[in-house]
Design goal:
291 residues, alpha/beta, Rossmann fold, 2 domains, six-stranded parallel sheet, three-stranded parallel sheet, binds nicotinamide-adenine-dinucleotide
């Protein structure tokens, strides 16, 4: 079984981005907005900020209390939109319950939408137009391309239909000429549906959901899920995906958790930030986005 490790692929993306950055007369600037102290969000935001700085970008995290009003958040986004020095804006989800995340996304200038989640960018992706693309699915595509997993004409089953992962991944798989099935919580006969897949993607958030009987022998399995199932003796979170460990005996290739899709998500965020900066600041020949 081939392990589809993320870190070496993320590293090739960073090397490509470094070469692009060296040519630019400016330093792209990423702003991440976080509300409250949800431990997973704190960890993700820290990772994004660290990687951005390591790559040589300007990065700032704006932290607000969980009680920040929707109006105040929208006002802050409007300020970031209007600031010519800011290239990328990301509001870390999940947001507190009183915040309407869709309204937040609609408020972000699509040219600065480095998470690729605004209706403009999501719609452009589905239309086959150039867009800032959602980071996790873009990371899955880059990972599969790196390991030379063929997609054209293949049966791809994606379990999970969120705006963050499942839906944009379906659009990207279609663009790659796969035959796509989007399965979800109401899908009947999930076992049979999954067994059709040449490439099976799990993006649900349920440990052990994908069992060996759901995987056709020799299929490629991508595990997007990240689930905290406890802490080790050092107090660190124990993370597992959506795919049961026994699937490794059936699949021909599998992404590990951690160390699979996760590192690719951050790499694609920084790719989007560099690209958004080039585009908005009028670099005359924006190089094609690193895919
Ligand atoms: P979500 O909760 O928004 O969506 C989950 C989806 O799973 C829904 O579409 C739902 O219909 C489907 N679902 C729920 N129960 C199901 C079942 N029993 N059978 C089939 N489908 C079912 O979640 P999300 O934001 O898309 O995230 C999914 C997982 O991916 C989570 O574990 C999340 O932590 C992880 N994630 C990882 C990365 C990464 O970088 N690796 C990035 C984003 C999300």
């Amino acid at each position: 079984m081939l392990e589809l490790a993320g870190p070496p692929v993320a590293e090739t993306v960073y090397q490509e981005l470094k070469a692009q950055l060296a040519q630019l007369p400016f330093v792209p600037h990423l702003r991440v907005v976080r509300l409250g102290e949800d431990p997973a969000s704190v960890a993700y935001v820290r990772l994004k900020d660290r990687q951005a700085r390591k790559l040589g970008l300007l990065s700032q995290v704006d932290v607000f209390p969980e009680t920040l009003s929707q109006e105040a958040l929208l006002h802050h986004i409007a300020q970031l939109n209007a600031d010519p020095g800011v290239d990328g804006i990301l509001v870390q989800s999940p947001v507190p319950q009183h915040i309407d995340f869709n309204a937040v996304l609609e408020a972000i200038d699509p040219r600065k939408d480095v998470d690729g989640l605004t209706p403009t960018n999501a719609g452009r992706l589905w239309m086959g137009l150039e867009a800032l693309e959602s980071c996790t699915p873009a990371g899955v595509m880059r990972l599969l391309a790196h390991y030379q997993i063929p997609l054209a004409g293949k049966e791809v089953v994606i379990v999970g239909r969120s705006n963050l992962v499942g839906k944009p991944l379906a659009a990207m798989m279609l663009r790659a000429h796969a035959t796509v099935t989007l399965a979800h919580s109401r899908t009947q006969n999930l076992v049979e549906v999954c067994r059709r897949a040449d490439i099976l993607v799990a993006a649900v958030g349920k440990p052990g959901l994908i069992t060996p009987e759901m995987v056709r022998p020799g299929a490629v399995v991508v595990d997007v899920g990240i689930n905290r199932v406890g802490q080790n003796e050092k107090g660190r979170d124990i993370l597992v995906g959506d795919v049961a460990p026994e699937v490794a005996q059936v699949a021909s290739a599998l992404t590990p958790v951690p160390g699979g899709v996760g590192p690719m998500t951050v790499a694609m965020l920084l790719r989007n930030t560099v690209w958004a900066a080039m585009r908005r600041r009028g670099v005359t020949q924006p190089q094609p986005m690193v895919r």
